[in-house]
Design goal:
This protein has helices spanning 11-22, 48-58, 72-87, 100-112, 126-135, 160-168, and strands at residues 2-6, 26-34, 62-66, 91-93, 116-118, 139-146, 180-186, 199-204, 207-212. By secondary structure, it is an alpha/beta fold. It holds the Pfam family Diphthami_syn_2.
Length: 214
Amino acid sequence: MNFVSSWSGGKDSCYAMMKAVDVGFVPKVLLNMMNENGKISRSHGLPLAILKQQAHKMQLPLEAVPATWGDYEEKFIGILHYLKNSFDLEAAVFGDIDLQSHKDWEDKVCEAASLKAVLPLWQQDRIMLVNEMITSGIETMIVSCNIQMGEGYLGKILTKELAAELEEKGIDPCGENGEFHTLVVNCPLFSEAIVLPKYATTTHNDYCFVVWEA
């Protein structure tokens, strides 16, 4: 089954893609929704250059689509139609774990594009998932987080020990509710690790971010 990966650049979309490949699905293209100017991703704030690096390490094309929140759904459905026809797709793979509203939306947009929505991580235990990701070889860095965690966590590689520490603090170790977001630096899907630009950190509107140098 040929599929498009809804690729955030983070650990969940990466592991979902790996799980899909493990059962014989074939990745054909990555899809990322960007902010209005097309320079950074809307979900994780990653520069286009980093997303392109990830795609290059997987030898897959990347479709990066600028969108506002107002036209996000319309553009998402439109690009799914285009990619379905261009790559002979049957499915779209998403990394959501248990936010029902997200799954409902993904089912809706995939149905509109005559694709099957596949969620390989759906309703799995959070700490078990994180540990599986790390054991499987996903190296992922925290690139944004809430102020409960604080700027001190930015730039840290997510380890089993760090995941356990977060859980002990009452923080979802997967960050499923937006507590933090990650960037995959290396994984079994990559030919080699990506090269990260220099960065600084900042806090804005109760959220902490990595700010990448151009």
